[in-house]
Structures are given as C-alpha cells and as structure tokens.
Automatic annotation (TrEMBL):
Cofactor: L-ascorbate
UniProt keyword terms in alphabetical order: Dioxygenase, Iron, Metal-binding, Oxidoreductase, Vitamin C
Pfam families on file: 2OG-FeII_Oxy_3 (PF13640)
Organism (species): Blastomonas marina
Name of the protein in question: Fe2OG dioxygenase domain-containing protein
Segments traversing the membrane: none
Domain Fe2OG dioxygenase: 97-206
PROSITE patterns for the chain: FE2OG_OXY (PS51471)
Amino acid sequence: MHSAGETTPEILRAHPGVRHAPTPKLDLFMVDDFLPDELCDALIALIEADRRPSTVADYNGDVHFRTSETCDLDVTNPHVAKLERRLDAFHGIDPAHGETPQGQRYAVGQEFKQHTDWFNPDGEDWERYCSVAGQRTWTFMIYLNDVEAGGGTRFKAIRKTVQPKKGKLLCWNNRKPDGSGNVNTLHHGMKVRSGVKYVITKWYRERPWQ
Ligand SMILES: O=C(O)CCC(=O)C(=O)O
Ligand SMILES: [Fe+2]
C-alpha cells in the first residue's frame, strides 16, 4: 500500500516507454514525448508572459545559487489543466497533494546550483514551507524545449546528466524508504550555454496542499 501523496515504481513502470535509472541510490524515471509539442509551446508562452525571479528556501548567502525566473501557472488555464490531467493519469497521486505547478525559464548563463527539492527539517524555512502539507514526496519535471547547448540536469551521486529534450519527463522520489530526505537526489540545473531553457516543475506533498 502507498499513501495518497505517493506513487510507486510499479505504477510508473507500467507505462510504455518509461526508463528507470539503474541505481539503488534513488528512484529516478524518464519518459520521452510525455507532452505533445503544441502543449509545450502553449506552456512556454504562459511562462514568457508572466515570470518573476526564482527564489530559494534556506538561503545560503549565495545570490547566484538560483538565477532563473519562475512562473506560477494558473490552474484554471486550459493548457495547465491538460498538463495536470496528464500527470494525474501517469502517477496516480491524489491531485490534492500537488503544489501549484510552476514554469522555470533559464537564459544563457542561468542555473540552479546543486540542491535537493526536499526541505531540511532543521532549516529555518521548514515551518514556513512544510508545517501544513509536510515534506515533498515526488518531483515531476518536464523539459518544454530542446536547448541549443548546456542546461542539463545533473545528479552527481549517480554521475548522470539528463539532457533537455522537448516533451521529456523526469521524475524521482525525494525520500528514502524510511521517509527521510534522500541526499542522493541532489541535482544541479546546469548553466544554459546557448538558447533558452524552459521546464515545468510539479512537486507533491505528504499531506494535502490546499
Ligand atoms: O532546471 C533543471 O534542470 C532543474 C530544476 C530544478 O531542480 C528545480 O526547479 O527544482
Ligand atoms: Fe530541483
């Protein structure tokens, strides 16, 4: 059995074309062509139209840690609703556990340095971000375009860099089997060298988000 904020490797692997990174260190999955090109283009247009500087939790003093821009997507928009339905059908997680989906935009030279998506229970922002809905469980990330150069997502613990590809989904479990944060999920949204990079990020929580 798994809880409402969860999915399982078995559920994910049941879909055609899903690849599982061959490592015991974390559960990481990829699938190409998860979103059709037209939907990627529509989501890029939404990100272009409404973006703000990205923020971080537990600020570490490095103003260059996350230099991208973020868009809080409007879930009443039909393209965003389509994205959400596609995700729901894929992972089976109760949609109530999902945070508002975001778009991220990286221009040349922008990056998100190595971090985990789970929050540090001893960190100063735990109360602010996790007191109601709890820890992040799963991360779903979708590349919305092909990037000319750079912009890969690097998982150092398994020496793997995932290259952006239009419509490709990447997802992973942020926790170890005992529910605590898995440091092997540390990842780096690497600098874009040429072109612009757009991604969707959708995070799930242990308890309902809203
Ligand atoms: O852009 C990437 O490749 C990684 C994005 C990311 O890690 C995040 O938004 O949490
Ligand atoms: Fe991340």
